[in-house]
Every structure is written in structure tokens, then in C-alpha cells.
Give the backbone structure.
Amino acid sequence: MNATHEINALSFEDAMSALGALYEEVDADIARHAPVCRLSARCCRFREFGHDLFVSALEREFWLRAGEPAVASDAWRPGENCPWQSESGMCHARKGRPLGCRVYYCDPAYESVMPDITEPAIARIKRITGQAGMAWDYRPAHEHLKETESAWRISSTARFTGESAALATGDTSSHRDHPQEGEP
């Protein structure tokens, strides 16, 4: 390993922090442009509106560790919709949502600005991912989440926090299909 790589190396937790800081910057930049969201839900109904949400492995880890509400497997249609979108079109994964969710708006006035925010952010995510020694693994979100569903049998009682890390290490001892007495 060369000296430059050692200096730039990030622990997994540092990479999570760096990605969180990047997301805060992106959110602030988007807020300055004030795109309008009309709750059309086009952003989350992928197949219906002809688009895919792509995420990297690092983004997936951040998303799953954000402590978002559990997903009922009957609400999720892989490749068709986001499992965290409510019937009214509201997002229930705001804190951990990936870059693609943060930057996408149907507002025509914002359309030309979107790439100016997205492209540099993707480059930074790639850099953070490399510094953490992780594979880029950039592919449709439903493929990443389907792997998680297969491993954890997503249900209305599933909890994501920490499960993805256990999946990566093969430690499934802390996973339970159902909550213990006194748990929600």
C-alpha cells in the first residue's frame, strides 16, 4: 500500500460520517435552489414513471443504518416502488435516503440544476467509498434491498439498524423475525 492511500484511508464509521456530511451539503445546496415537490410520487414509483434508483454499497449501508421505520414486505414491489413510500406519497426514509432520492425533483425549473449537484456528489461518494476500501457496487436500489430482504425476511416487525453490518459479517445471532415481549 502506498503512503497516499494510507493517509486517505477511512474507517467504515468515518466513511458513514463523511457520507452523512456530504448529504447535508447536498440538502443545503438543493434548498438554495428551492425546487417544488408536488407529492406526485413519481420519484418513488419507478416502473410506472420509467426510471430506476441507483445506489452504491456505501449508500445502501447508510440508508439501512439510519434507523428508518421497518418495511412491510407486502408493501414492497422490487423494481416498481420504494418500500418507504406511503400511500399518500410521503417518504418515510428521509434521514437515510440515498443521493438519487435527495436530488430528484419533478420541478421543470430545477431540471437543469440537478446534474450540477448530482455529478460532483457522485464523484465524492466514489472517493469516500474507495478510501473506505469498499466496492463501488452501483446498481438499482431494489437489487441491494432484495439481498437484504432475502437475508433478513423483511416484515412489519423488521429492524434495519445494524442488520446490514451483521449480514456483511455473517452474524445473524441478533436477528429476530418477531419482536420480544415489550418491544413494538
Summary: The CA atoms of residues 24 and 84 lie 20 Å apart. Helices lie at 3-8, 12-33, 46-49, 57-65, 99-103, 114-131, 141-152, 163-169.
